[in-house]
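[[Per-residue structure]]
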Amino acid sequence: MAEIRLMNLRKEFGAAAALQGITMTIRDGELVAILGPSGCGKTTTMQILAGFLPPDGGEVWAGDRLISKPGSVVPPEQRRMSLVFQSYALWPHLTVFRNVAFGLEMRRVPTDELRRRVKAILEVVSLGGYEQRYPHELSGGQQQRVALARALVVEPDTLLLDEPLSNLDASLREQMRFEIRRIHEATRITTVYVTHDQAEALVIADRIAVMNKGRIEQVGTPKEIYRSPSSPFVASFIGGANCIAGSMVETGLMQCGSLRFRASDGAGLDVGEEALLCIRPHQVRVHRTHPGQRLCENLAPGRLMQLAYLGDFQDIRITLQGGAQIRAITPSEREYMAGEDVFVELPVEGCHLLRS
């Protein structure tokens, strides 16, 4: 295993800057998810890590080895890294055993050791007993686990996973998130996992690096990223936070048009400074009538504009007095109608302030 260090990594394609000074450390034995929307630079980062692309600036270190810099790139086969692509890339004419053993055969590993290692890794990925099956006899999730076993059996220092679950259906994708986490805990191989799916990153990763427009906006544990986003982009991309623009009137108190909202933090903002108040949709409370004497410091009238039924809960879009749009997640047993006038409560403990 090895620590991976990206140091001021830059990459340009013509006039477009794909990476703008990426700096990050993936610790030995850690699983880091690189998360972001399409075009943010996460796949470019992965290709440079794997040795398929040279950087235009900066360096990549694996332990004490400099493996990438402008004009000098260690070839992929000499990096002690295994890469799992979006497609499973299994040999259709080879059994599970032969698919997994392929890399060991190329390394001329003795037969007894080869059999031992293949059997052991198939147990790790819960495919013991599937040795003689062919890829077409397996489910999508089983094929993905064969691809993982093939990458792991050669005992790489680093495992690179590039959107490995994108070809699976929603139910299988959810199941495989936990499988990948379990496999990582069993092997503790340093792992870099590229995805655009925030749920995958939250379930799988020790830490998440959120990318946007070729830069890393925030690195932290899933809990840190979700509870304490450091930028409006991270707040909206992870969990779809509502962000309402306004200006500070005193510490922790923001004026949003004709409405005032108090937050649980001041975020170091000065009076008069422009800011955003952010709150997660599931923290927003919707009332049909005014809650009366009960303390509701952050209460605003609004009109329900859209409603989507999603089984156990419903996704509601509300326009507040003054025109601000807000989204709420409420239990599905509460029946609302589009056009209904409601009162929206933004609990102080759920409101956080960010510079706009």
Summary: The helical segments are 42-50, 96-106, 111-124, 140-152, 170-187, 198-204, 222-227, 232-237. The radius of gyration is 25 Å.
